[in-house]
Amino acid sequence: MSCRSTGDKRDLVRIVRTAEGVQPDPGGKRAGRGAYLCHNPACWQQALRKGRLDAALRTALTADEKLRLTEYAAALLTAAV
After folding, report:
1. Which CATH number among 3.40.50.300, 3.40.50.720, 3.30.1230.10, 3.50.50.60 corresponds to the domain 9-80?
2. Is this structure's pTM higher than 0.90?
3. Which of 20, 38, 39, 40 has the alpha carbon at shortest distance from 30?
């Protein structure tokens, strides 16, 4: 979404908006409006900072949701190292 990279959908992380809120969907199977981000934490930060994720999910992310997504992106970085 943010970096406009293309590739296999399985190589991306799906973010989903459900009745419980916005959250990562690593399995890609949850029902709800979704958006895809690559594993690069800089891409996640840009999507959150510029409001691109809000627009893609057609919602306004709360501060708590943004914090959880930022922490998830940081965990992706440590898992990749």
Report:
1. 3.30.1230.10
2. no
3. 20
